[in-house]
Automatic annotation (TrEMBL):
Pfam annotation, one family: MinE
Signal peptide: none
NCBIfam families attached to this UniProt entry: minE (TIGR01215), PRK00296.1 (NF001422)
InterPro entries: MinE (IPR005527), MinE_sf (IPR036707)
UniProt record similarity statement: Belongs to the MinE family.
Protein name: Cell division topological specificity factor
Coiled coil feature spans: none
Organism ancestry: Bacteria, Bacillati, Bacillota, Clostridia, Lachnospirales
Function summary: Prevents the cell division inhibition by proteins MinC and MinD at internal division sites while permitting inhibition at polar sites. This ensures cell division at the proper site by restricting the formation of a division septum at the midpoint of the long axis of the cell.
Keyword line: Cell cycle, Cell division
Any Gene Ontology biological process: cell division
Amino acid sequence: MLDFSQLFGRKNQSSHVAKDRLKLVLIHDRMNCSTELLEMMRSDIIAVISKYVDIDTDEFNIEVSSLECDKEGNKAPVLSANIPIKNLKKVR
């Protein structure tokens, strides 16, 4: 049987996985924490949010940047997330 999702579906999933892993490595360098910890955080965020909404995990993105936190110019790491929502789920 012909699978239309393969013909007209999304791009190669391995490229999305590689892109996500590269992003995690960059985040690791900026935050100075382990890649394993960042992957666990990403998985936990997806698990919690998925209880309430359907999200596009291929486009899910977390990013660490620095934010000036006081007048002396000290910076603190900031975790930002871009989470595309597909649909809201009905909550009981």
